[in-house]
Amino acid sequence: MKYLLNKKKVGFTLIEMVTSIFIIAIIASLFIANYNTANKRTDLIMSAQKLVADIHYAQNNTLGLVKYNDLVPAGGWGLHFDVDNDSYLMFADLNAPGETGYMSYDEGEGEINYGARLTSLSSNIEISSLEIGGAEKTSVNVTFLPPNPQTNIYDGANTSTSLIIGLHDKRSDTTKTVHVNFLGLAEVLD
Asked: Which of 71, 134, 139, 141 matches a 20 to 30 Å C-alpha distance to 78?
């Protein structure tokens, strides 16, 4: 009997248990908040990098003389951008230099079944700005003329040597900038 009375009870008190659970809950909430923020940044970064890759893809289609509906596009391949849009279109410029519609996206040049491609940006990400020659534009085409490929940045009226594309994440209100120059070099600036 004396043996049972001297035995100490080992365990946590209720206050210790509540404190431990509270600390674990705080750490978990900080982790989840940080994870969501990192996820938003990653979506924007990945969208900008994919845009650069698609610009290079259009260049490669031009260099490789990739056919569109069994024809090599006379004006090469290009990308069509519109402001406040969550997608952009890779198209085949069927018009040769000097023809009406050259360097522009026209009906019939963006058929997915023939090789064009519509790329949707990640959810909540949009093209927020297009700037050529220091002026804001609502629509811009970047085309690559074979065989060099010569880079054409065209807003429907004028050509330029540089294009700045702003991508905007509506959730976090952050932006990334993609720059394309007259040599066709594309890069994410920030």
From this structure: 134
DSSP 71: B
Which spans in 64-174 are helix H?
none
Number of separate domains in the chain: 1
CATH code (residue 133): 3.55.40
Q: Name the pTM for this structure.
A: 0.79
pLDDT tens digits along 13-42 = 888 888 888 888 888 888 777 776 666 678
Question: Token digits for 6?
Answer: 């001297």
Tell whether omega for the bond before 97 is within 30 degrees of 0, i.e. cis.
Answer: no
Distance CA 162, CA 138 (A): 15
Indicate whether 4 belongs to any domain. no
Secondary structure of residue 109 in the 3-state scheme: coil
Mean per-residue pLDDT over the chain, rounded? 88
Q: Which domain holds residue 61?
A: 33-188
Within 10 A of 166 (CB to CB), how many other CB atoms are there? Answer: 17
Helices (H), 9-158: 14-63
Residue 118 lies in a domain: yes
